[in-house]
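A common beginner's mistake is to predict each chain separately and then try to dock the pieces by hand. The better habit, illustrated here, is to supply every component at once so that their relative placement is modeled jointly.
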Amino acid sequence: MAAHPLHLLFVPHPHNNHKPKILWHQSILVLFGLLIMGRSLIDIFSGVRPGILGFASQIAPEKVIELTNQERQTNNLPPLTYNKELSDAAQVKAIDMFANNYWAHVSPTGTEPWSFMINSGYNYLHAGENLARDFSNPNDIVVAWMASPTHRRNILDGRYKDIGIAVVDGYINGVETTLVVQMFGVRQSAAAEVASGNVVSQVYAQEIPKVYPATTISPFDAKKSWSIALVTIIILALALDWFFVWKNNIIRISGKTWAHLTYFLTLAVILFIIRQGLVL
Amino acid sequence: MRAQIAKKHLDYLVLLIAAALAIVLVLVFASNKQLVSLVVISFSVFYFLWGIIHHTFEKSLHPEVVFEYLLYSVLGAFLIIGLI
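With all components supplied together, the output reads:
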């Protein structure tokens, strides 16, 4: 009696030469092709329909500020207050990074972050800047900053009173990127404050529009889901193969299923660990 | 016979230690993409070599087996590398 195709695909049987068809060399090559094809389709789709697949999927600046303040409160520090001048400075800095194609605190022309603050009318006594790119959600950004000693120091610096943030989507070196610029500061004395206040109203009378698209899925998450789906199929097939080979005491020329399972389970754990995004 | 079984268990232990080490290193270097890539590629190359050595000692090395480990190692590495 002929076995069911699904049975032949996943269970060792005389009709599949005692090896599930999905674990045949040809099938592994097909899975490899599907992996590459799936990723290419996601890349093409995110290029053609950037409104659906984009990096700035769920990064709301307010949420980044909220999470930053949560970290400060956990460490018994007062929360930072949103400051429009700092946010404008962060916005101009992000736009400058796209315009001049760089990913650094200091621009190729030597412009430091502090000059963006001064130009936006924020006369600082102490100031700091955290950068992040390509994250798909605000939580991962703050977690990555807190994991880095220098960024953590900025977030937990008791001298800072104000915070400004910008989330801007664009291209750096031809790659679609979402930049998150976070600026911290504390103003100088009240006398200097009044003097700089006049400059603000003259130079930045117009508000710079925020450019973060309201998209739902990041290409990274889509590709990661595709990889997880494929690795799950392979692990399932290997687990079934291992069980039936053991149960039926099958002897065949093949690699060790138990070892393959260990290898792919390790990769599955790594798949869950890796996150998108860089901090600077 | 007993020595052969002990050797097999040692092989599996080495593989398990390598797998655990790969996971720990990825956790430690999570924010450094180059190092994560290096860990994944090293683990995949290690797995391929582990398969060859294990089957050589078991006297069950066959070109088909070598190709199988090669396929799995390359597929496994690509599953992760394309994402980093």
